[in-house]
Specification:
Elements (H helix, E strand, L loop, with lengths): L6 H8 L3 H9 L6 E3 L2 E3 L2 H9 L22 H12 L15 H4 L4
Length: 108
């Protein structure tokens, strides 16, 4: 017969406060057993329950052109990235930096 976990043991295992576990038990949010008022947990059920919270990795998707199902060409993505990174307002191609007042007015 598998060992049953106590609130303290499960608290340590999941690194969750005991008060949180008591709350989850009361609200039926976590699988548990109540044996003559004692709360116990089956390790296999807890592992399956915890695994149910795993999120699948997001699929990589390229932006789509408005009104079309085509993906944006790589050249266009690079051009957009350059526009976002470089200061094109002054015709310069250096990265935008946050200059202090002294550097902007040439005091340094």
């Amino acid at each position: 017969m598998p060992t049953l976990l106590t609130i303290q043991q499960l608290s340590d295992y999941l690194n969750i406060k005991k008060a949180t576990l008591y709350s989850w038990v009361e609200r039926q949010k976590i699988p548990h057993l109540k044996i003559h008022g004692l709360i116990r947990f089956r390790p296999a059920e807890i592992d399956a329950w915890a695994e149910s919270f795993r999120k699948a990795p997001a699929a990589l998707s390229l932006p789509r052109l408005k009104g079309r199902g085509d993906t944006i060409p790589v050249d266009l993505l690079i051009a957009r990235a350059k526009r976002d990174v470089y200061n094109s307002g002054h015709g310069e191609t250096r990265p935008i930096t946050s200059l202090g007042k002294e550097e902007r007015d040439g005091s340094l």
